[in-house]
Fold each of these.
Amino acid sequence: MEATKRHRRKMQSVTMMDVAERAQVSPSTVSLYLRKPDAVSATASRAIAEAIDALRYVPNLMAGGLAAASSRAVSVIVPSVRNAFFAETVATMQAELGKERLQVMLGHSEYSEREEENLVKMALSWKPAAVVLTGLSHSATTRRLLKDGNVPVLELWELGREPIDMAVGFYHEQVGSTAATHLVQRGRKRLLFLGARLQEDRRATLRADGFLKTARETEGVSAEIVQHPAPANAAIGAMLLAEAIRKYPDIDAVACSNDHIALGVIFECQRIGVQIPERLSVIGFGDLSFSAACNPALTTIRPPGDLIGTEAARLILDRIHESGRAASSVIDTRFTLLQRQSS
Amino acid sequence: MEATKRHRRKMQSVTMMDVAERAQVSPSTVSLYLRKPDAVSATASRAIAEAIDALRYVPNLMAGGLAAASSRAVSVIVPSVRNAFFAETVATMQAELGKERLQVMLGHSEYSEREEENLVKMALSWKPAAVVLTGLSHSATTRRLLKDGNVPVLELWELGREPIDMAVGFYHEQVGSTAATHLVQRGRKRLLFLGARLQEDRRATLRADGFLKTARETEGVSAEIVQHPAPANAAIGAMLLAEAIRKYPDIDAVACSNDHIALGVIFECQRIGVQIPERLSVIGFGDLSFSAACNPALTTIRPPGDLIGTEAARLILDRIHESGRAASSVIDTRFTLLQRQSS
DNA sequence: TGGGCTTATCATAGCGCTACGATTTAAGAA
DNA sequence: TTCTTAAATCGTAGCGCTATGATAAGCCCA
């Protein structure tokens, strides 16, 4: 025994080398086949495919990522996937990115910039193919990390100020404005905005702002706001309506920061005998799964959560494929007003 | 020039080596500090921490994972995060695992075993610290991959047959049985189960089975089922109730496969003037955000989505820490009946 | 004072893959 | 047939880190 080996290591059962050997090609060719199948001849492709199958080869993406200095993971950070809006976008993105074998890494900021910053730091450790954030407000450190990180960055669900890199979403002030205009067109004069958790949900605040601004700029129309710091749900909605009627007995229309609130309003009106829409018009935001089935069916504004996801995925894939490009994109997905019975 | 270097490589700006140099220790010590801070002296720790901070060092987890032959990623595969139940569990798991710097990699099977299999293959390429699946039904290949993969495996949200490795959840037949027993105790005799997408949602089917079995075993009680293949939502719920009343005019209680269906039932009853609970008792499943605020408030069974997430995270962390253990665990989280006005 | 511990630190050999440039082969053109 | 050019394929040096075992430094008690 000549050499006294001191080191030993566990290892992966089947490596690319094994595949190469069986297919009678070099490891480089196997690697090429896996990354760009078109660049490999039909003969080689067949042999490699057979070998992969026979050996049950599973590529090691950590090794690949290390060698390539970038991984096939996309870090997606949302306030919470418990929120149906973001769940829709995350689900759509995962489906689209999964087709190209990109992995979604999920993080929840819980509406905290501090937490978002931690998640971004963690994400960067993975050399992700892209980092996806929600909204346009981030800590200075987050911004710096992302700009220095030399990584495609997407900001979803909000348009307005300058994005770090790319953005897909819509203008929330416009949502509020559209709601106000709609109610006015329906002949309403005493408008009210019902909001929950506005201190944390910047986008809901923008909707409220747009609503109040547009309403107050209209001749002969008044607009007030009633809010609560708790997260939006139907119970809060019911509570808010009760409070609103106490404070402003003559209101004839309410816009809600989302459909959960609106659902609570509908229930509360049933209980206290307020007729919708005769006595009170109601408009929500979200078009959640129950909105069309309410009694009365809820007029609402539908944000395109799925479209945001597909567009985001498309931008990421574009960036990956034509890696040279630096064009920064902003996509306005718009939103849709769905008029139903409640207004 | 002696050597003609042919190779060149881009690289990470700051590596562990840079940190080691600045802190006047070896790279090994830095690595140790990062993985087990307690094993490093206070002096060294301070110097390393300072260096990391000053250089803004970001560890490369791909390199770490490759060297360690396992990553700090946990692959979580759920039918869809659009479903509030799974969203709750995913969110909770991410929060718990994130504390220990584990990344959640998300996949959506869309209730397809074929798709789940693909996702598991992709997941395994990352050498995850654990693989988390939903339910106990998987393709044979999925099972084999996971067993050969030498990876901790968790199956959530369902108990019953033998798990691959560990399982956290509850018995869905028990849920159905509990619902039936409750309605009988409230004096109901003509029971009905309203279900959506039962062909795909195995767990909803188990609830239906448990419900029908228990009801039919009870003296003087009858039970029927009405279902629809579309995904559960309030509109389907309303439709199902209308159909149910047409088919079985004398029913006095309905159990719904989830609260979305129950919400539709409530709305439909309001429209057609059926009094809840006087004429008809209603019980749901899920305790969704609106359930307590309905009119009338909905009696429902609450599955502990958050508990499932925390318990799952705990099991994974336990496995990582005491890596020798092979004890396979099954945790029954139970569920809670919430009696409200609708029954 | 020194032997036997424990504790802290270190040097080094890969982990499995991809990028790079070089080399071989195939296909046309002359 | 030879030369040129394009298409396939190959050889190899790392990517940045961790596991391993070795060494050095403290510490206790005889």
Amino acid sequence: MQVRRLHPWPSSVAEAESIQDRLRGHVELTGPTEFALVAGLDVHYHGDDAVTAAVVVLDGGTLAPVEQVVAEGRVAFPYVPGLFAFRELPTLIDALERLTVTPDLLVCDGYGLAHPRGFGLACHLGVLTGLPALGVGKTPFIGTHEPPGPERGAWTPIAHEGATVGRALRTQRGVKPVYVSQGHRISLDTATGQVLRLAARFRLPEPIRHADHLARHPS
DNA sequence: GCGACAG
DNA sequence: ATCTTGTCGC
């Protein structure tokens, strides 16, 4: 599939932040509610600055694997909270461009709207591809929230500066919640429903687990 | 003001 | 992210 280059690569924190501030205006918060093909994305770090990006496409109904690709690259930016996306974006884009099918939903490892400037990795990937995208975080980042109830499916809103930017979602009984936020072309209800459905067996959604495994053990 | 801060 | 043992639960 094709990915759009909507901006030059930033060479400073200020440039990176201004790119986020500009692209934020392109995010759409409504979209489809069903997805024929869902893709999970993840990056594995090794050595000083080497990264392996993996994208795994699953059948949206059966969750059977349809296609998987990996790309090797280098960390493209220093780690700065809020600018995390710039580290792995180039390698993730390389991997996406090797896909022979176009997914209908990107399930990203990180945040979307629940981000200091409202433009996390999931928003960035969504806008560059034009595809619906959502973010799944494993630890709280911004905003405040109450712990959700212990049962699978329980959730509480994540509030930040007077707005709801995501949800803490319990995907398995008695297991730490995950943090769901919108990336692009998806509602918060749909994002929550998809993550819950894709995480029927484990804490993390199946596409992210597959991508994580592939990035660690490239075939 | 200072520290903490997705992966 | 990654460096790492043992322990608990399914």
Amino acid sequence: MLQQSTQGVTPAETVVMHVDMDCFYVSVERLLDPSLNGLPVAVGGSPDGRGVVSSASYEARRFGVRSAMPMGQAMRLCPQLVVVRGSYGMYAKHSAALAEIFRRYAPVVRMASQDEAYLDLTGTGRLYGTPLVAAERLRRDVLAETRLPCSIGIGSNRLVAKVASDLCKPKGLLWVPPGSEERFLAPLPIERIPGVGHRIAERLHAIGARRVGDVVTLGAATLDKHFGEHGRDLYSRCSGVSSAHVTEHEPAKSIGAEETFDRDCSDAEVLDASLSALSEKVASRLRAEGIVASTITLKYRFHDFETHTAATTLAYPVDDELAILEAARGLLAAKWGGRRAIRLLGVTTSGLTESSAQLDLLAEEGREKRDRLHAALDRIRGKHGYGGIRRASSEGTS
DNA sequence: TCTGGGGTCCTAGGACCC
DNA sequence: TCTGGGGTCCTAGGACCC
């Protein structure tokens, strides 16, 4: 599987690298507090409340602790677990530093999230040698400059590179040479394929497919019958076919915020205060990014996890909390009967465009004054966080 | 065991227009 | 008086990812 090539890479040969940081949040926390080294650590919410695990150290994983697991459950599995609240600002800083290193190695870099990236190495063979040599150097640079460990998968397309990095964690390197994609994937459990989650895996198991190779054996027609359009996609991915095209980061399509209450809530005033805080948060981000939104979506979840969304599209795009709040309020009033207690509220904006594009549409006098007020509010929030300042209607949510 | 918060993409139906 | 087909926009829900 893992082969050391003796020749350089020909320019025409597509080489995609997937760099994935090893338990990124935990690794950053260990930089901040080295006493965490060697201990089972989980970054995430409180074990007493409704928090979940965001990132678990390998010591913790040995006890069965996993991402997205309720923290209380993690504590039961591993009583000596050290729980750390996230230092999210630090993660963003380190992520930016990583992106800079990656850009030295590839002309096109796609940060897929804070802790993983796709690099298109096609044509860089003369500069860095074989993919494995380049990967080894990159990993050394990352470790030397950030002291953060990572794993790297290399393949002829993004899917193969990603599966490879996943497989060699932690601190691994794995190259899948061109032509061996299908052989590489076939013996793996289908859950290893990105996009195959819990539900789809279950349905595949039901028709007798447990390994990636089983899916290929079933054939495109059978998958099409069971999964429709998604089936063809599934088939090609299991065959190792996927886009090799790496593109730079694209502008966000939606910006939102949500809040899960410590206890389910049916108090209309508390819910309204939450909507107000969420609207402020979203509006503040929209303005910081210089964009406006035309669609407002309200999300609400009941105690049994039944989740609904309701959306409305405004006549013109907005970036201010009152307009967003008003829309969200209206949706809640129209949809929520007031009987069932709510465990989560969310406000998401979409239909995003650059705000400069609508300047002439909104050339009212009040605009400038309002902008100055918002700028002042954003500055204060930037300094003190969202608890620093709130309108009167947001009181009671903190 | 009882499920966060930030997102993306896909599907499907209905409205509306030509 | 009954009715096609295509395209686009909007809404709702669901699966998935980190």
Amino acid sequence: MPRVGLNQRAVVAEAARLADEVGLQQLTLAALAGRLGVALPSLYKHVRGADALIQKLSALATAELATELTTAAAGRAGGDALRAMADAYRDYARRHPGRYPATQRVPDPADPEHVVAGERAVGAIYAVLRGYGLTGDDAVDATRALRSALHGFVSLEAAGGFGLPREVDRSYHQLVAGLDVSFRSWPVDAP
Amino acid sequence: MPRVGLNQRAVVAEAARLADEVGLQQLTLAALAGRLGVALPSLYKHVRGADALIQKLSALATAELATELTTAAAGRAGGDALRAMADAYRDYARRHPGRYPATQRVPDPADPEHVVAGERAVGAIYAVLRGYGLTGDDAVDATRALRSALHGFVSLEAAGGFGLPREVDRSYHQLVAGLDVSFRSWPVDAP
DNA sequence: GCCATAAAGCTAACCCTATTAGCCAACGCC
DNA sequence: GGCGTTGGCTAATAGGGTTAGCTTTATGGC
């Protein structure tokens, strides 16, 4: 009986592909094992269990997203960088409907790769905000605002929450333009 | 053997309480049945199944949220109304960590109560935006932006996504202030 | 008051997923 | 070529959801 020759990387990579096809909720060890041509319990040689698998998938997706955000913002500044990054963000979420929700898991402190990926993603946002002259507490608030707006939009869109016929692209464009305006006069009012 | 005397309302209400305690993901028919002092299959006399239960829970939570948003905005206008509504939104999500995520399910078209609840919630937002002079497509875009920002913030907060020590209340306040600024000059740029 | 019927509960059985234990065989190294 | 490591397997357990079919309670018409 020849071996399939799996390792953790391959298992997680296939899990990511499967998640994108069927959705993160429907990602099941049974289906994954079937995909890999292996019996279900064999997966336990490579991952600790279902939860650990998703955590690893989160690390992978976060790293991918961080890279795409960084690339998008490279060589741009201010509103240009913001728009490019926002587009990259939404684009990733739409191309990877299964991986994207996994990126919202908080990184496992025991997984250095995961932690680094998370820092890279936040760092990319920070860099864009620096272009608006934001640092310190203001940058923290602005980062949270940006993440909230992008994540909120993208997840409502994925959930089918936008019923009306009005073009979603236009709405996203407006949202990002609104963020640009806000960041220009950040912090918006005195506490 | 005396009857417990359940009905769908009671089952869904208890499901909502349980979800708030253990999380929507951990809401299980088995646990719910135990709570209600009934065997698991008995629940099928009142709900079609696990998925239908969550959909009913979504209808309940959406109705509650719509009411709270409407109440918060009543008697206020402009930035005042926006802030009151945003506070009510986050407050609901924090008081009801299990119900809140259920509100993001798209309403079941076959459930008139659910549909109405969804319309009331969106209507409350629309009313606030009318205070900014927004109507038509602009209001659609602004509604999506507002929902995205609030939902994004609240769900990142619930997921523990805000690691830094910076006060979360302050960040939320800034986010809402930023929305206020944006809505004042909406639409932000020409398409 | 009585009985027919609908509704509310039950048990039993089945399927699917995750997990653990323990066995066996393939691969890699010396 | 032996031999340890390790990647795969089967079997078994537990938990959740679902369906079928039975029993008993409440209820309403007469």
